[in-house]
Design brief:
With about 280 residues, the protein is of the alpha/beta class. The protein has eleven helices and eleven strands.
Length: about 280
């Protein structure tokens, strides 16, 4: 997706595009690869929207990230906060690359009347997640850590950071449902002209401490050992919670609880992945 010719083939004779392309990872991965993450994500978004515009795509929805929002932002985070500061430094390269989708979307609306929107999404999880401990996010990483500790009869599981940050998690099926739901509102007479929306938040609407998340996953995996927190490792942003008032005003809300979603994710891991990564 970083090459124009590939994007051109993808959108040929297509009416609607959901741009879910992205290169992502956890805190350590962002620390090691900021240049690659910036370039890859910028090119994926820019090239695909340009080729979609040239090929007369009718509706274009881009997947953004809450890492685009400023580091120190009032909670919960509203769409109006997007330009009010610099993102958290570790994930800034990735977050700013994704943020450029808003600029491109607004510019293309102004010059070409191109119909697009960027959805800013909270932390996702679910089937087909990344369980690689070097590049995964916290929820799938903890599922794997607790499972392996249980299987190996390890006395404790180590969790990065203090456990004090708060995070929000959205099951991937809820995101898919929200994006499809937005299609019927994505035209010039509603979101852009009436509500002045160039981007919109999609999240669960509630967050919890990493300590609480770890306890939930431990219970679901049925690990009986200790949890130890390594405070020498970075916590990242203290809190990340999206305000989902706008999309709820349109009539959408998430339906899959965190407990239910983690159970589904762990079942998928057991059936499809744990034998590969262990």
């Amino acid at each position: 997706m970083r090459k124009n010719e590939n994007c051109r083939e993808v959108v040929r004779d297509i009416d609607i595009v959901f741009n879910l392309a992205g290169r992502i990872g956890g805190i350590e991965f962002n620390k090691q690869m900021p240049g690659e993450l910036f370039y890859d994500n910028l090119m994926m978004g820019t090239n695909l929207m340009e080729e979609a515009r040239k090929n007369n795509v009718e509706k274009f929805i881009s997947l953004g990230t809450m890492c685009s929002y400023p580091k120190f932002t009032p909670q919960p985070i509203t769409e109006d906060d997007i330009w009010n500061g610099y993102p958290e430094e570790v994930t800034a390269a990735y977050g700013l690359a994704k943020k450029m989708q808003i600029v491109q979307s607004l510019a293309y609306k102004e010059q070409y009347d191109f119909n697009s929107i960027t959805v800013f999404v909270t932390n996702l999880y679910g089937p087909n997640d990344n369980f690689d401990l070097q590049s995964s996010h916290v929820l799938p990483a903890l599922i794997r850590k607790f499972h392996e500790a249980k299987e190996n009869k390890t006395e404790f599981v180590e969790v990065w950071g203090s456990g004090k940050p708060k995070r929000e998690f959205l099951y991937v099926d809820d995101l898919a449902d929200a994006c499809v739901y937005l299609l019927k509102y994505l035209d010039a007479e509603t979101l852009y002209d009436k509500m002045k929306i160039s981007h919109i938040n999609i999240g669960y609407g509630e967050d919890l401490f990493i300590v609480e998340l770890a306890e939930i996953i431990r219970s679901i995996v049925d690990f009986q050992g200790e949890i130890r927190y390594d405070s020498t490792k970075p916590d990242g942003t203290p809190r990340k919670l999206l305000d989902i008032t706008r999309i709820k005003q349109l009539g959408w809300k998430p339906t899959i609880t965190l407990q239910e979603g983690i159970k589904k994710s762990y079942e998928w891991y057991l059936e499809n992945h744990c034998s590969v990564v262990n």
